[in-house]
Design brief:
Helix content: 40-55%
Number of strands: 4
Number of helices: 3
Largest sheet: 2 strands, antiparallel
Strand content: 5-15%
């Protein structure tokens, strides 16, 4: 959903590839894969429309796909997804609150 306080799209209550930490907000990898998936979907729809217009039209009709509004929304999400970042360390972090954990030297 869009978080007005961040001016970005966020994903709450997710489990990323580190399954020991579940129900976290804005797992970097999960947000990245969501953006990758939307980019890929947009590219494949464009390709299908150009290379197989009849199949594309069948898809639009079957799914009641509102191309203009749905692709615009997806493009907006792609451009405005939130990725947790630690300004002090200048690194992306695993998820919101990750750097607030006790830091141990191993």
């Amino acid at each position: 959903h869009f978080a007005a306080n961040k001016g970005k799209y966020v994903m709450h209550g997710v489990t990323g590839p580190n399954e020991y930490e579940n129900n976290v907000n804005n797992n970097w990898y999960t947000n990245y894969i969501a953006v990758w998936t939307l980019r890929y979907t947009l590219a494949m729809l464009k390709k299908l429309k150009a290379e197989a217009p009849k199949q594309y039209e069948a898809f639009v009709l079957k799914r009641k796909f509102d191309e203009a509004s749905e692709t615009a929304k997806w493009a907006d999400i792609v451009e405005n997804m939130y990725f947790p970042f630690d300004e002090k360390l200048n690194v992306f972090v695993q998820h919101d609150g990750f750097m607030e954990k006790e830091q141990l030297t191993v």
